[in-house]
Amino acid sequence: METKKRDLVALASIPLIMTLGNSMLIPVLPQISKALGISSFMVSMLITVYAVVAILLIPIAGYLSDRYGRKKIIIPSLIIAAVGGAVSAVAAWLMDGMGAYSVILAGRLLQGIGAAGAFPIVIPLVGDMFKLEEDVSKSLGIIETSNTFGKVISPILGAFLGSFIWYLPFIAIPFLCVISLILVIFLVKPPKHKENKQSIREFLKTTKAVLHEKGRWLYAIFVIGGISMFGLFGVLFYLSEVLESTYQLKGTLKGLVLAIPLAALCLASFVTGKMIGNNKAAMKWIGFTGMTLFTVSLAIAGFNDQIYFVISLMTLGSIGIGLVLPCMDTLLTEGIEKEQRGTITSLYSSMRFIGVSLGPPVISLLLGANHWVLFLVLSSVSAIGALLTFFAVKPEE
Predict the structure, then answer these.
(1) Which residues contact 273 (CB under 8 A, 6 or more apart)?
(2) Helix axes 168-187, 97-116, angle to 10 degrees
(3) Which of 365, 333, 119, 321 is CA-nearest to residue 227?
(4) What's the CA gap between 284 and 290, in Å, rounded?
């Protein structure tokens, strides 16, 4: 693992940059809504369209990475993400109203295409780079920590940039993508790839066989990943709206408040990745504990809408998500053969993106409802994840 530090730094930049490219917009969504004269639901689509297109293309990117090599897919994907960011930035800068919104949306769609072949391919590439399960779990813990660290600084950075000009976060995105691109080109040296010449038909047949053989726990992990992201991004969207509309918190101060639960998630991911090693039974029970903690925190938060109370509980719940993600990543990566790893982990990433895409619009529709109803929905969905972890995730299989 010591010899791969530079590779890990470069790879960790991808989830960091991809997270910034999406989550950095969350604290400025109310500003975007006012500047362009669009509804809360329409502005939430800027997050959702990015995730939806990624959902559709991630499995294809996974197949291509299995066939042609991980790095050969990551590099053009980062270029596409940078171009999409530039399109959105130019539209936000030079246009206004619905015209600007339409072009920004198109740019976000391009970003989603790029995202499909970037972060999701990092997980199987880490699995390829290390032979020891303990090294894989530690490295995936670092990758998840980078991902969650991006979520920590994104509301602060997004709110800070937005305090000057509302579209400044859009302008920052393509520059960040280029930084990650340069790091990957010069620092990442993946193991020699043996080209997989499977046809699409053979690929589908093999994937179907893997899902048939290991489907029960694989599907459970897919859904757990989606539920985790749904709850997390739903809560972030809720807090962003409430902090600005009810408590008049704007700019960097709002970003700092949003960063509190995310910092807890980041620390929990890092510690969990270090701690679990190759103990698959521990991964299951730590994951179950994390989902239960998140569920209970959401349920209790529904009984009081005081912002200090809600943020305290969401910080506790975020620790739960930080326990879950490295465990699910490692169980999945180590449970699948190298030849199918890119494809199967890409399906998992698709489910996580589904969670990301559904969180903001669902919560935007529930904002007008009772506070208790909103958190009842979130905690009920999270409870499904906890039950799946308990009953369906079976490392011994």
Answers:
(1) 137, 138, 139, 140, 141, 142, 144, 145, 326, 330
(2) 20
(3) 321
(4) 10
Those residues whose C-beta lies under 8 Å from the C-beta of residue 379, and which sit 6 or more positions away, are 295, 296, 298, 299, 302
Query: Which candidate, 317, 332, 316, 222, places its Cα nearest to that of 283?
Result: 332
Question: In this structure, what DSSP letter does residue 193 have?
Answer: P
> Rounded to an integer, what distance in angstroms lies between the CA atom of residue 128 and that of residue 376?
41
Q: Position 53: which residue type? A: V
C-alpha distances in Å from residue 77, one per residue of 88, 146, 368: 17, 19, 38
C-beta of residue 215 within 8 angstroms of C-beta of residue 340: no
The C-alpha atoms of residue 184 and residue 125 are separated, in whole angstroms, by 12
Distance, in Å, from the CA atom of 50 to the CA atom of 113, rounded to the nearest integer, reads: 8
Are residues 334 and 133 in contact, defined by beta-carbon separation less than 8 angstroms? Answer: yes
Span 53-96, pLDDT tens digits? 888 888 888 888 888 888 999 999 999 999 999 999 999 999 98
CB 114 within 8 A of CB 80: yes
Contacting residues for 346 by C-beta, under 8 A, at least 6 apart: 58, 59, 61, 62, 63, 65, 120, 121, 124
- Compute CA 214 distance to the chain's CA centroid, rounded to the nearest angstrom: 24
Per DSSP, 367 falls in state T
Give the H or E element holding residue 63. helix 40-68
Q: Are 319 and 265 in contact (CB under 8 A)?
A: yes
Q: Name the token pair of 309.
A: 């109370």
Return d(Cα 254, Cα 145) in angstroms, integer.
22
Question: Using one digit for the tens of pLDDT, what is the confidence trace for 269-317?
Answer: 889 988 887 888 899 999 999 999 999 999 999 999 899 999 999 999 9
CA distance 1 to 137: 11
CB neighbours of 23 closer than 8 A, spacing ≥ 6? 150, 151, 154, 155, 158, 236
Q: Would the pTM count as exceeding 0.90?
A: no
